[in-house]
Amino acid sequence: MRFFQGLIILISINAYGQSAFPTRAIDSLIQRKQRAYEIPGIAVSIVHEDTILYNKGFGIADVNNKHVVDQNTVFHTASISKLFTAQAVVELVNQNRFALDDHIGSLLPEFKMADQRYKEITVRQLLNHTAGLPDVVDYDWSNNPAEPDVLKKYISGFSTKKLKSDPGKEFYYSSMGYDLLGYLVERISAEPFALYMQRTILQPASMIHSGFDYHKISQALVASPHTKSLSGTVVTRKTYPFNPAHAPSSTLNSSSTELAKWIMNFLAMQEHLSVMTTPSSNHTFIGLGWFIGKIDQEKTLYHFGGDRGFRSYLIILPERKMGLVLLANCDYDEDFRQEILHGIIRVLQTSAK
Questions:
Q1: Buried b (16+ CB within 10 A) or exposed e, 137-156
Q2: CA 51, 54, 60: angle at the middle one, nearest 5?
Q3: Quick one: 84-193 is in which CATH superfamily?
Q4: Pairwise CA distance, residues 182 & 139, whole Å
């Protein structure tokens, strides 16, 4: 029996009881990896179409106070933020506010670079990381300016920078490019980026405790960032990763519950799935925001996230209308994300046979 058909059966059985879903096997996998990698806290959710199949937290939000992680604990999601910014850009394109192949310089006359090739950069190239922009070197997480023009001031600093390649030619992952897209959203909408995202992207997906402004998140829900000391001890980082200049690329805070809601909402928007997940013509491993790959020959759409104190991973299996997300409050090691989510996918495949 195909995996998709098996899932339909599992969901039908779940209407009468939870025994058919491999909850214990998934719990065991997550807890085993959590111990092996010494991860303070993890939250994982799994959705199929409009149903949350699994949503749990494990461990603690802070090693100092031992507060338990649950499905409502809020984590810094890092670069998963880019998927939301990409969605906002595509929605403005759908509203005919601008086009994907418009030059960013014509949309933002104040945007300048020392390298005159910047005039050829398009919105599409920023979305698929082919604009030639370098990546952010220092996010300056200890700097939390409150002034309303923080994105504009940050973008003005591009005037001394040069491109790494001709626009449209090479793939260079660039958070700078997404911060520039966030400024475009802000300018076109005439609304501060974080507020615009709250109103048009987060609220429609019922993400009431999520946001791009860390200071407006309920502190009772927030997980602390962790790292390892030179002695190998897990410790809480002193600085939470937040700088509004990098909100569009990096500062979405959310929970496994609310990211599950967003995945279900995104799966229901066929126009977004089609436009955003079509492989780029010259780099087929990326669409508009989404990376495109395979797990055991199954197509995946995904994005990783990683900043000081946090790691995250979000996957969609489009052919099965299924999505998974993992959030963790540590910044050491990387492989646990794939080992957990890819492992869960294989557990589900086995249970559906």
A1: eebebeebeeeeebbbebbe
A2: 140
A3: DD-peptidase/beta-lactamase superfamily (3.40.710.10)
A4: 16
Compute the distance between CA of residue 242 and CA of residue 142 in angstroms, rounded to an integer: 7
pLDDT per residue over 277-316, tens digit each? 999 998 999 999 999 999 998 999 999 999 999 999 999 9
DSSP E strand stretches across 49-97? 51-59, 75-76
Q: Confirm if 48 and 322 have CB atoms less than 8 A apart.
A: yes
Residue type for 127, please?
Answer: L
Taking alpha carbons only, the member of 178, 176, 174, 205 closest to residue 193 is: 178
CATH class of the 3-78+206-351 domain in this structure: alpha beta
pLDDT attached to residue 15: 36
3-state helix, strand, coil in the chain (%, to 5): 40, 20, 40
Asked whether 228 and 235 are in contact (CB, 8 A), the reply is yes
Can you give the residue ranges of every domain in the chain? Answer: 3-78+206-351, 84-193
Bridge partners of 324? 46, 315
The yes-or-no answer to whether 3-78+206-351 and 84-193 have a common fold is yes
Contact assessment for residue 243 and residue 141, using Cβ atoms and an 8 Å cutoff: yes
pTM comes to: 0.93
CA 88 to chain centre: 13
Give per-residue pLDDT as tens, 94-122.
999 999 999 999 999 999 999 999 999 99
